[in-house]
Design a protein that fits this description.
FAD/NAD(P)-binding domain, Jelly Rolls, seven-stranded mixed β-sheet, five-stranded parallel β-sheet, 41 strands, disordered C terminus, RmlC-like_jellyroll, metal-binding, oxidoreductase activity, Fe-S-cluster-containing dehydrogenase component, 4Fe-4S
Length: 845
């Protein structure tokens, strides 16, 4: 192919097609290089019949080729026809293997020259004269010359691979072409992005295929998937077409089976095929050889780009998924715009400009959209790893806000799970509710609100602007998406949360500078349910903080393990062996799937040596734990039977969800007389609908765990509530407010069956209405029973709402179930107060 093209476009996906069509429309000499024999290979490889979405719906399409939501086959047909109609110069079987610069270095990039052109100091002709020629070497030996190169190659050719034993077996695949090919198979989908969800739904769509389909989700939410896909997946799960396995990961693969690590432990299930859709990474080696720099060393990082898509190699532009902007409509707009920029259009604004302008309209100052985006990106630490294109997409789901000195950003106990990044100014955290003058500053560049993001709890403190302050408020889903797509953001949030947890836990006048060395060396580790973190008798010397989940502590007495205590999130352990150099005195293992922060023992000791008050506290905690151990060993023969019963009872409670509870209802069956006053009192306090089932649930010895909410530390029910109707109260209670839409997601996500969908009961008629018209319950008929029957008789499915225990929040006297128990059989306790050997010790004294 002779001559030098004005622009060569590598890759014919949506971004490349749109760029080529625009070049043809403007009459620019161009070539579209495609390595296969067809256009848009990524969409070509979508599963047959796949419905392709056109999101965001509020974004206009700016392209010379059409695109609207529809079937894969229809869209490809339209594109083939229109590319031919536009006389786009396509070269098939043209795979680029290298891009070599052949011209002299230019005095500035296209971005710099375009900015000068906007100032009137350069002309469009000068921009064109200073474009360097590039030689694109193809695998077939040909060379294509071009003044500008557009990389639109995407990332799908470089999929992330599974990393577990058995991942190289032949039934593990990374692509699904035609769901109809698979019949009567147990199929596991790994990955809950759009591709994974669509594959799972496609395989489960036709019941005649008799496939058993499960999709694995490491967490409980779907931050990288489109909302419509998530809702459709949930509907299929509810209809029994497929199974969503939350908090589940692959441990190992073998022919015919897969072993999962779940919240409750390991699970081995039949598996004939695994389809892994766990994302992809940029083809870094090829891109870097072109002279393009990346935003970080992380494998999943994206190239550094200017607002006009130019990379660090002058004249080479990057658009589409390789730029970190994978939605089809965005890609097509980029393809159109990059050609306009190359052609000298210095006035063109991106298609999403009106949307983002609206985000900044209330901020002080006269910055342009690009300047505001760069201001936030450079000044908020967790956003530093994003490129300008990613920043634009990020702002579509975020809000920029300005606060004046003293203005409240949020109040203690207010609901909220968003994250805030401080771009300028600072905020003051009111740490003492009784004295608002006692505050801790958080400076520009940092974040706050991470506790609500991580735990879903209400705000732990009132935060005010200490001066004129600009923040970016990031919704929970946007924050989760940010962490999944920008490794640097995840690391920054993790570091700040560790630092603040250390300061909150240890206190004693510690400062950020005091804990900085320990934070730098800390590691966050995931632990599967039942995994041993510390082994009795071992000589390791690290200290651990329970970041999420809970632990149980056991000590071997003779040949049997004795349950010592329960450690909820926020506890620390392991310091005894570090302080006195002894071996581990007990075994600590996870009660449920958990996260721990591992602190090097040497660093922890150095912190104690520098802070006497902290050392004194640690020694006091250690003395208490040693006293418990000494007590067990000295009295083990005296009440060995009680030790065995206590240990078995504690293990039973952990196995039944106490390990992640913050408040649990227990019934002592030695005292319970079966009067059902607890249920009746609950119903009378809650519109006639009882939140507990006394008879349901499991029993061990004399302890019964009825079906009632445990108010989990990290509630499963909160994971996917569309209206955000599930909140935490100031006392830790998890409740559902009046914004519930009755979708049933919380009921499906609760592993303990304590949430049900019930019709909203009618108002109880008055006594006079009963006497005159026979309305309402008669004498001797329980009001709550009548209201429930009427609700079930009259209500439609749409009128149903989620019902669960709210610990009688707002009712004087506390939980009605406990107050109404005539024998004291019903108690509500926090597991760390109940699951401890000191209770047994007290009973023995």
């Amino acid at each position: 192919m002779s001559g030098t093209f004005k622009v060569a476009i590598i890759g014919s996906g949506p971004a490349g097609l749109s760029a080529a069509a625009r070049a043809a429309a403007l009459g620019l000499s161009h070539v579209l290089l495609e390595k296969t024999d067809h256009l848009s290979d990524t969409i070509y490889k979508y599963q047959k019949g796949k419905h392709v979405m056109a999101t965001p719906s509020n974004l206009v399409l700016r392209s010379d080729v059409d695109f609207e939501a529809g079937k894969r086959e229809t869209i490809l047909g339209v594109w083939d026809e229109q590319i031919e109609g536009h006389n786009v110069n396509v070269k098939y079987h043209a795979e680029a293997k290298a891009i070599r610069g052949t011209g002299d270095a230019i005095p500035g990039s296209v971005q710099q020259i375009v900015m000068r052109a906007r100032d009137g100091t350069r002309t469009v002709k000068e921009i064109q004269r200073h474009a360097p020629p590039y030689a694109i070497e193809l695998t077939n030996g040909e060379t294509v010359m071009a003044e500008n190169v557009i990389l639109a190659i995407g990332t799908q050719g470089n999929p992330n691979r599974m990393r577990c034993p058995g991942a190289d077996l032949p039934h593990v695949q990374y692509q699904l072409d035609d769901p109809a090919e698979y019949v009567d198979e147990h199929i596991i989908i790994v990955g809950t992005g759009d591709a994974g969800i669509e594959n799972a739904r496609g395989l489960a769509e036709d019941p005649a295929q008799r496939n058993t389909v499960s999709i694995l989700n490491r967490g409980t939410e779907f931050p990288t998937a489109k909302d419509a896909n998530v809702k459709a997946l949930m509907a299929d799960h509810e209809a029994g077409k497929l199974m969503i396995r939350t908090e589940s990961e692959t441990k190992s693969i073998e022919p015919g089976f897969i072993t999962l690590t779940t919240r409750d432990g390991e699970l081995r299930i039949p598996c004939d095929r695994i389809i892994a859709r766990i994302g992809s990474a940029p083809p870094r080696m090829f891109v870097e050889e072109c002279g393009i720099e990346f935003s970080s060393e992380d494998r999943t990082a994206f190239p550094k780009l200017s607002p006009v898509f130019e990379s660090t190699a002058p004249g080479i532009f990057v658009i589409g998924a390789l730029a970190g902007y994978p939605l089809i409509k965005h890609c097509m707009n980029q393809g159109h715009d990059v050609i306009e920029f190359i052609n000298g259009n210095t006035e063109l604004k991106p298609a999403d400009e009106p949307i983002i302008v609206e985000k900044f309209k209330d901020l002080p100052g006269s910055r342009s959209t690009d300047e505001w985006l760069e201001f936030l990106r450079t000044n908020v630490s967790i956003l530093n790893g994003m490129n300008p294109l990613q920043m634009r997409e990020f702002m579509l789901d975020s809000t920029a806000r300005h606060f004046r000195p003293g203005e409240v950003i949020f109040e203690r106990n207010a609901p909220g799970s968003s994250l805030f990044g401080i771009a300028s100014g600072s905020v003051a955290v009111e740490v003492n509710p009784a004295d608002p003058s006692i505050t801790i500053p958080i400076e520009a560049g940092s974040i706050f609100g991470e506790v609500g993001l991580i735990s879903g709890r209400r705000r732990g403190a009132t935060i005010r602007a200490a001066e004129d302050t600009i923040v970016v408020e990031i919704s929970r889903l946007a924050a989760l998406k940010l962490q999944s797509q920008v490794p640097a953001a995840k690391k920054a949030i993790e570091r700040i949360s560790i630092e603040r947890q250390l300061l909150q836990m240890f206190g004693s006048g510690l400062t950020r500078e005091d804990v900085a060395p320990l934070v730098d060396s800390a590691k966050v580790e995931e632990k599967r349910a039942g995994e041993i973190v510390v082994t009795e008798g071992a000589d390791d010397k690290d200290v651990f903080i329970v970041r999420r989940g809970s632990m149980i502590v056991e000590k071997a007495i003779g040949t049997r393990p004795v349950f010592l205590s329960y450690l909820p999130a926020g506890s620390y352990f392991g310091e005894m062996a570090v302080i006195d150099g002894s071996s581990r005195t007990a075994t600590v293992k996870t009660a449920i799937k958990s996260e721990v922060i591992r602190l090097p023992g040497e660093g922890f000791l150095e912190l104690l040596e520098r802070n006497p008050a902290l050392r004194e506290r640690a020694l006091k905690d250690m003395a208490g734990r040693r006293a418990t151990t000494t007590f067990i060993e000295s009295r083990k023969d005296e009440f060995s039977g009680a030790v065995d019963l206590y240990s078995e009872t504690a293990q039973f409670l952990v196995d039944n969800g106490i390990g992640e509870a913050t408040d649990v209802l227990l019934i002592d069956e030695k005292l319970c007389i079966g009067c059902d006053n607890c249920e009746k009192a609950c119903a009378d306090s809650h519109d006639g609908l009882s939140r507990l089932d006394r008879e349901a649930g499991r029993t061990y010895a004399h302890l019964h765990v009825p079906t009632s909410c445990r108010h989990c530390e990290h509630p499963h029910c909160m994971a996917d509530c569309p209206p955000n109707a599930i909140k935490r109260g100031p006392d830790g209670e998890v409740f559902i407010d009046e914004t519930c839409i009755g979708c049933g997601n919380c009921q499906r996500n609760c592993p303990y069956g304590v949430i049900r969908m019930d019709a909203k009961p009618p108002k109880k008629p008055s006594l006079l209405e009963w006497m005159l018209f026979g309305s309402g319950p008669g004498p001797g008929e329980a009001p709550y029973g009548w209201r429930k029957k009427e609700a079930e008789k009259e209500a439609t499915p749409k009128a149903k709402l989620a019902i669960k225990c709210d610990m009688c929040s707002g009712i004087d006297g506390g939980p009605a179930c406990v107050r109404a128990c005539p024998t004291g059989a019903a108690i509500r306790v926090a597991p760390d107060k109940f699951l401890t050997f000191t209770k047994l010790a007290e009973d023995a004294e």
